[in-house]
Write a structure and sequence with these properties.
With about 130 residues, this protein is mostly helical. The protein contains 7 helices and no strands.
């Protein structure tokens, strides 16, 4: 009887996964989110390069890869890749109505907050008020 339930549950899970048209995209997004959470830079590079995953895809809580960087991020190169290669944005809100900067403040992640402010055009310390880089 146990093997029947295992087979039934396995086939039900496969049916649920393959019923989505964007199975490959959702899978690459999931792997991208996990790589960002573990600060695995080589894996982030490979996922963004090979699967063309976008950093603005959301998980079940509405968090993007940039939100995960805001919570767990330590390496600024990951955020640079997400912003410029993965089309990430700092303005997207999750289901709790938090931007990545708010998530970084909540979790007191000074490194990710510094990286986000340095990459943001409004807070970039090397830009002068006239917009010219010095």
């Amino acid at each position: 009887m146990k093997s029947f339930y295992k087979k039934f549950l396995g086939s039900l899970l496969l049916l649920c996964f393959f019923s989505h048209a964007s199975f490959a995209q959702s899978n690459s997004c999931r792997f991208l989110h996990e790589s960002v959470k573990t600060n695995n830079l080589p894996m982030v590079i490979e996922i963004l390069h090979k699967t063309k995953a976008r950093a603005d895809c959301e998980d079940h809580k509405g968090n993007t890869a940039v939100h995960h960087f805001a919570r767990y991020g330590k390496d600024y190169r990951i955020l640079v890749l997400l912003m410029y290669r993965g089309f990430g944005t700092l303005n997207k809100v999750n289901h709790a109505m938090q931007t990545p900067a708010m998530v970084a403040l909540d979790y007191k992640n000074q490194k990710s907050l510094t990286c986000m402010f340095a990459l943001s055009s409004d807070f970039n310390p090397i830009r002068k008020p006239d917009g010219i880089l010095r």
